Amino acid sequence: IFAFQVSQDHETMAQVLFSRNLRLNVALTFWRKRSISELVAYLVRIEDLGVVVDCLPVLTNSLQEEKHYISLGCCVDLLPLVKSLLKSKFEEYVIVGLNWLQAVIKRWWSELSSKTEIINDGNIQILKQQLSGLWEQESHLTLVPGYTGNIAKVIYI
């Protein structure tokens, strides 16, 4: 019975990994074609947080390097997935989400911190509103010890 269970568990894990590999290969195809909006649409459509966690650091690095591959609209589209990451029980997911948020805020800080009510880009208003709601919901992350809490404190100030 034990050998059968191990075999069955192995088969299930193999299917999960095969599926994840397929999804990552699709994401990689979009990235290589520089079809960032298609990549983001794909991530939103599949709602697979494991794939999001694998892809988001690449998008975060692109934002940090100030490459203009990623539009503000794409960042707004990704925010609901990032909110899900911040609610995860896995610290790695939370850290990936916080790192991405920090990169987004840094990239569009001048627009986000602008006090003028007239902002031509509606996505800035949407991002401001979503970030404001996020601070209220996830402020407890600043209480987490270690790296996670430290990066949360930087973002939430």
TrEMBL record:
Compartments it resides in: Cytoplasm, Cytoskeleton
Assigned keywords, A-Z: Cytoplasm, Cytoskeleton
Domain Katanin p80 subunit C-terminal: 8-155
Protein name: KATNB1-like protein 1
Organism: Galeopterus variegatus (Malayan flying lemur)
